[in-house]
Amino acid sequence: GGSDGAQTATAVLLYAVDATLADATGIAVARGPAIVSRVSLAYDATVDDGAKITTKIGQLAAAGIIARDGV
SS3 string of 33-57? Predict the structure, then answer.
């Protein structure tokens, strides 16, 4: 649990969803095989250096979601 960026990355939301004031529907890739654009990934503000980003990308890869440049 929590919301500090320390959670394990297990899925990719395909577009921004604002659920601030009410529930909202979104589309996510929750397992692979899938390839996503590395530069399009967004992270919590606490994921603020290369090592943390590399960790998140590794977590996604464990779910079969591969982040690549140039996609």
Answer: CEEEEHHHCCCCCCCCCHHHHHHHH
pTM above 0.90, yes or no: no
In whole angstroms, give the CA distance from residue 33 to residue 10. 13
Please, what are the averages of pLDDT over each run of 10 residues along the chain (71 residues)? 73 94 96 95 92 96 95 78
- How far is the C-alpha of 30 from the C-alpha of 51, rounded, in Å? 23
Residue pair 29/65 in contact by the 8 Å Cβ criterion: yes
Q: What is the CA radius of gyration of the chain?
A: 12
What is the Cα–Cα distance from 51 to 55, expressed in whole angstroms?
6
